[in-house]
């Protein structure tokens, strides 16, 4: 007989998942049952500092009071209409998100991958309707080592064989160039190019930050060559790097912005394509949609997220605490850390493989009460909630120092 969930231990629950859940993840062996702010608690009541923050979906921490309040208020009024009808929350969400990002129009979706898919469709349509690319010939230029999600079309232009193998046939129409290489981009963009799609900082690849001038160069090149610049800020955006958007570090405004993760406040999946009117204006009724996209609950939470970002507090915290993160990691270089890259409260840390794989280091940190996630090989990613205190951040760095010693 199966015991009720609340009487099961963490070990019971981990074992129970095996036969009934698809094995598409390899989670750390921790079973989280409660969370508040920067802290999560497991089934047995052990507390952990969350230094991953749901891959940046929890930029405002777990259960931020303003976001929980907005969700509760909306739950009591209206949760879903579908876009067959209007709802009274969507206009304000779109107005404020457009204002926050300096763009004109919003296409609300749910997950990050859906925003990417939608951005690709919009760019292709723009290429045919506005740019005049012959039917069926539009191309999109992307960067090697990209991560934009898991749909069939998106993995079609991944360079990660694990993400692709066994999932073909793939969607054509993509050209892959090395990241951070403007010459390669120049050579790849031609009259068929609808858009250049890149992450301003490559998150999944290990927080890879391009050289200063790259993003401004992509902006100049795409403008000169007459194609769109699509910035996937699903992980880099919404305060993480010390600015609302990572492209702001180079004063760049893309034509199309893809947002997700933190836009839903860690409560509901909310994503969006945000763009200039000339671009999103190519969509007409019936050409694209989503039953849940722009639902009133998502719009209420999304609006509350935008309100938090309008204060500038989280961007400021990411900048200030980012200095502590950078200084702390700098001290560990040569003491178990081979190198690191950081911007704001976001870092990719290359651990000396002699000390352990990223996975092993993550497990050791877990035993010290700190949750992180490895990315490739011996790289771990640090992305705490932007609500973390200086003291908590120093204690996480102390735990890292301890497990690397
Ligand atoms: C840059 C980027 N784009 C898209 C996605 C996909 O988002 P989702 O997992 O919500 O589909 C991710 C997820 O990690 C991401 O980091």
From TrEMBL:
Task: Report the top EC class in one word.
Answer: transferase
Q: In which pathway does it act?
A: Amino-acid biosynthesis; L-proline biosynthesis; L-glutamate 5-semialdehyde from L-ornithine: step 1/1
Query: What SUPFAM superfamilies has UniProt attached to this entry?
Result: PLP-dependent transferases (SSF53383)
InterPro entries on file: Aminotrans_3, Aminotrans_3_PPA_site, Class-III_PLP-dep_AT, Orn_aminotrans, PyrdxlP-dep_Trfase, PyrdxlP-dep_Trfase_major, PyrdxlP-dep_Trfase_small
Cofactor(s) needed by this chain: pyridoxal 5'-phosphate
Primary gene name: rocD
Keyword Amino-acid biosynthesis applies: yes
Positions the record marks as coiled coil are: none
Single annotated GO MF: ornithine aminotransferase activity
UniProt KW keywords? Amino-acid biosynthesis, Aminotransferase, Proline biosynthesis, Pyridoxal phosphate, Transferase
Q: What is this protein called?
A: ornithine aminotransferase
Q: Which domain of life is it from?
A: Bacteria
**Taxonomic lineage from the root:** Bacteria, Bacillati, Actinomycetota, Actinomycetes, Kitasatosporales
């Amino acid at each position: 007989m199966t015991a009720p969930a609340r009487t099961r231990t963490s070990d019971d629950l981990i074992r129970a998942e095996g036969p009934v859940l698809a094995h598409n993840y390899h989670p750390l062996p921790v079973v989280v049952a409660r969370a508040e702010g920067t802290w999560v608690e497991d089934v047995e009541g052990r507390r952990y500092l969350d230094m991953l923050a749901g891959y940046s979906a929890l930029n405002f921490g777990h259960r931020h009071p303003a976001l929980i309040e907005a969700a509760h208020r909306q739950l009591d009024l209206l949760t879903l209409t579908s876009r067959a009808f209007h709802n009274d929350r969507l206009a304000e969400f779109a107005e404020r998100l457009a204002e926050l990002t300096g763009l004109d129009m919003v296409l609300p979706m749910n997950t990050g991958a859906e925003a990417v898919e939608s951005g690709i469709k919009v760019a292709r349509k723009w290429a045919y309707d506005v740019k005049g690319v012959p039917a069926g010939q539009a191309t999109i230029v992307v960067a090697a080592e990209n991560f934009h999600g898991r749909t069939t079309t998106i993995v079609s232009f991944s360079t990660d064989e694990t993400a692709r193998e066994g999932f073909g046939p793939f969607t054509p129409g993509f050209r892959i160039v090395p990241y951070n290489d403007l010459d390669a981009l120049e050579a790849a963009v031609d009259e068929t190019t609808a858009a250049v799609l890149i992450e301003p900082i490559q998150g999944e690849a290990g927080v890879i930050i391009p050289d200063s001038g790259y993003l401004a160069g992509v902006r100049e090149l795409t403008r000169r060559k007459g194609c769109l610049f699509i910035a996937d800020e699903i992980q880099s955006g919404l305060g993480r790097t010390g600015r609302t958007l990572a492209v702001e570090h180079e004063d760049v405004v893309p034509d199309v912005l893809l947002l997700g993760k933190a836009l839903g406040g860690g409560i509901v999946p909310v994503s969006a394509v945000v763009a200039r009117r000339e671009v999103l204006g190519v969509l007409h009724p019936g050409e694209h949609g989503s039953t849940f996209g722009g639902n009133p609950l998502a719009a209420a939470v999304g609006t509350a997220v935008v309100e938090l970002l309008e204060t500038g507090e989280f961007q400021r915290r990411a900048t200030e605490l980012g200095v502590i993160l950078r200084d702390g990691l700098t001290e560990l270089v040569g003491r178990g850390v081979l190198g690191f890259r950081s911007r704001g409260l976001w870092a990719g840390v290359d651990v000396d493989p002699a000390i352990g794989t990223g996975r092993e280091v993550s497990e050791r940190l877990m035993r010290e009460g700190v949750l992180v996630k490895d990315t490739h090989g011996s790289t771990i990613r640090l992305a705490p909630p932007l609500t973390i205190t200086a003291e908590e951040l120093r204690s996480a760095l102390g735990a890292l120092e301890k497990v690397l010693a």
